[in-house]
Structures are given as C-alpha cells and as structure tokens.
Amino acid sequence: MHVLIRRALPDDLDALVDLENRCFSEDRLSRRSFRRFLEMPRDRVLVAETEGRLVGYSVVLMHKATRLARIYSIAVADEARGQGLGERLVRESEAVAVDADRIIMRLEVREDNHGAIRLYRRLGYRQFGTYRDYYEDHGNALRFERRILFFEPSDAVRPVPYYPQTTDFTCGPAALMMAMAAKCPEWRLTTLEELRIWREATTIFMLAGHGGCGPHGLALAAWQRGFTVTAYVSREGALFKDTVRSEEKKRVLELVHEGFIHDMALTDIDLHNEPITVDVIEEALARGDIPVILVSTWQLNRSRVPHWVTVCAMDNQFVYLHDPEVDVAEGETIADKQYLPVDRAVFEKMASYGHRQRLQAVVIIGPRRDLGVSD
C-alpha cells in the first residue's frame, strides 16, 4: 500500500475528525481543536493518505518561547497498521520540527501502550517524566523526548573530542581536557588526568561536598601543560565565597585565591578582570581557540549549581556546547551532550553565575607554547 505523507489542508478537516473517531474512543480531539491546529502558523498537522483517504495523522506543536517541539497526537487507522506508518509519521514530524529549528521533540504515551513505547525507545526516545491522571480514564502518561537537531562540524570548525566527567565535582577538569585535546589531538583524556587537574585547580570549598574548580586554577592547569591561555574573570577577589557560610571556609577560599594569583603572576597567562562578551568568544573560535566557560544551568534544568562547559562552535542562531555531565540515571547518553545547540539569547543568560553578583568566567585555550603555532 503506497502512502503519501503531506501537510494537512483545511479541506482535510472532515477526514481528520472521522479518522480520530475511528482510532479513539476516549480523549478524542475535537473538530474545533483540529481547526485551531490547522490555522496556527507555527504548528504542523501531517496526514498520511492512500487512494484518496486518510489513514494516519500527526499533530506537531512548536513551543513559542523555546526550541522544543511536541507530538501532541498521532494516529494510524486499523487497516494501515503493521506497515511502519507510525514510524514514518514520527520521522516526518521530526523533520518538520528540524526545519523549524527545534532541538528537542517530546511526546506523551499511555503507560500501558507497550507497542508505542517500544517504537519510541527504538527510535531513540528516552523517558524523562510521568504525567499522573493524564487521560480521561485517569491513566498515566509517560513523557519521552529525543534530541532531533544535531551539529555536524564543517571543515572550517575544529572538531572537539568529547569526555564525560566521572565525578559530580570535575566538570571543570573535563571541560578543560576537551579544550586541550581539541588543540592537541594526541592529548590523552583519562580519569587520572581529570583528577590531577581537579587537585590542582580546586577551590577547596564550594556549596556542599567537594569543592569545584575556579577559572584561575583551570587557567594555571592549562598553562602548566604547555598551552597558551587567556582568562576573563568579571570581578577580582576570591570567588564563590557566597556559596559557603562558615567564616573559616571563606578564609580558606581567600587563601587559595591568593595562591592562584601569586602563581599566575609568574606566567604569561593573559588575565582580564572584566566581563566577557559573546563577540570575544566568537573571535576566539574564529582563531581556532577553544573557550571553557562557567555557566548557570538554570536556563536548562532549573539548577543553580555553577557548571563548566566547552564551547565548540557558534553560528547565527546557536552556540554549540560540549556538556561533560551525562546523567545516566535520567537516560542521558554521551550523544545527548555533544555539540548541544543552545539559542544565542539563552546562552547569554547562561554565561554567568550567581543571583546577586553575576560572575562571568571564561578560560580560552590557545596553541601549545612549545610549538608556537596552532595545532
């Protein structure tokens, strides 16, 4: 059976309602809802047609304020089942969402719809949540998502190797190692090196648990490994003091900072105590250098924990990041965190940490000093 998948037209309204009534006995979309979806400029309704009749549809909603898309509803007529039409509708839905510059596709499925769940998992979707009492019969819905927009480095973009952090507190070393490996392809990305850099660059205290790494320590670690380093830190003095309450811990942070500043004075690290701009990051990438930047992940996951990422590339719409944190418990994979496209406007909000005093920190890794030229 030859099936054509195309964008729905206003004249398809009657057939869509009829198909909905044939496919579902509950939670049916109304005629009014279909009309609204057909008329909404940013949303898409796809239909599967064979011999002049509709045998499937997909409603794809495009979130106005984010780069998210959502398969709101999908249906396949009984006579068209078993021929891969559901998979085709999902793939076509992803394609129209990518054309609209969406990064993530989300959907909901009944927790007892095992066939659909198997399909979505096979297509690369991962469960990230549950809606309780979602359906008319009080059934639960499982929430799935898949990243659909990927970045393929062009010949003009330096590929950046990916390395996932192996502890909760080594995002800085992992991000720095990726930047150094981009400048020096033979650089070994090992857990031992990750921990060594953390020991050299840690601020000792930060929040609860083990201390994270600050920009001064990371800059020194890169310089000591033979790289040219430029650092931008938007304010002077010991950083992260507001993340601890103990005066003793605050004093330790101050002493560690004094040590970093003393050691940096013995190097040729180019330190700027001023805010960083997106233009400076873009210029660094154009030179072939790799920025490692401190971000607030509030825009992504509502976490206020400071986090280091590696900036791989930029274009007119997105900043592409390697995020070293892979949450395996939430179903994330390494592929989810490579060349992660972040809208430039969102990136500008992310590129600072702290609620009261916004801290901006970037460590830019240049060529090896012993080579004298870019690798």
Automatic annotation (TrEMBL):
<dbReference type="InterPro" id="IPR016181">
    <property type="entry name" value="Acyl_CoA_acyltransferase"/>
</dbReference>
<feature type="domain" description="N-acetyltransferase">
    <location>
        <begin position="3"/>
        <end position="149"/>
    </location>
</feature>
<dbReference type="InterPro" id="IPR021770">
    <property type="entry name" value="DUF3335"/>
</dbReference>
<dbReference type="InterPro" id="IPR006464">
    <property type="entry name" value="AcTrfase_RimI/Ard1"/>
</dbReference>
<dbReference type="Pfam" id="PF00583">
    <property type="entry name" value="Acetyltransf_1"/>
</dbReference>
<dbReference type="Pfam" id="PF11814">
    <property type="entry name" value="DUF3335"/>
</dbReference>
<protein>
    <submittedName>
        <fullName>Ribosomal-protein-alanine N-acetyltransferase</fullName>
    </submittedName>
</protein>
<dbReference type="InterPro" id="IPR000182">
    <property type="entry name" value="GNAT_dom"/>
</dbReference>
